[in-house]
Amino acid sequence: MSETTSGSVRWWVRRGADFAPVAFFRRRESGGDIVDERYAGDGWMPDTRGAVDRAERFALDSDLDEISAVDARRVLDMIAARTYTPLLMAGDAVPIPAPPADPVPWEQQGCAVCRAQWERGDRPPLIAEDVPDHSSVHRCSSCGTLWLLTERYATAVTADEVRPVYGDRLDD
Ligand SMILES: [Zn+2]
Questions:
Q1: For the chain, which residues make up each domain, given as ranges?
Q2: What's the CA gap between 144 and 146, in Å, rounded?
Q3: Ligand 1 center to residue 26 CA distance, Å?
Q4: What are 101-139's pLDDT values in tens digits?
Q5: Opening angle at CA 44, ends 7 and 82, nearest 5
Q6: Deepest in the core among 42, 56, 75, 79, taking most CB within 10 A?
Q7: Which of 28-32, 53-57, 89-93, 123-127 bottoms out in mean pLDDT, i.e. has the lowest?
Q8: Ligand 1 centroid vs 112 CA: distance in angstroms?
């Protein structure tokens, strides 16, 4: 098996529920022919089920996502490390993690100022809002605690916990 490819190569992944790649495909040219392949085990095998062909012709109906060469490199690195991490793309609806099963008691979240604001039906200043997620992030101007407000509850969070949804919108 040769990893040498000439000309342009196009790449696709199928991702699981956690957005990590579960299957990896490519289309390359070889001697004027188009060759579609799927990564299996430790090498490239013919894409005998025509997954790449369907993804190329019916992109919207396909469960494969075409990715850039840079992302393909990341997937190859994941394969080499046998560690698969989420490959996020524009348009992904990333769920905010559920609150911990053993939540921090209300009296230990934030400070008296922000807790009182929530208790009054007031809110600490808005930092960012995510309409698709039906949530918003607020920051207490007294203690600096970040709060995530969902349709059901407000809870103190760390920036890392909400970064999957809010990204750099949390940065001042
Ligand atoms: Zn506070």
A1: 6-81, 106-170
A2: 6
A3: 51
A4: 677 889 999 999 999 999 888 899 999 998 888 899 999
A5: 115
A6: 75
A7: 89-93
A8: 6
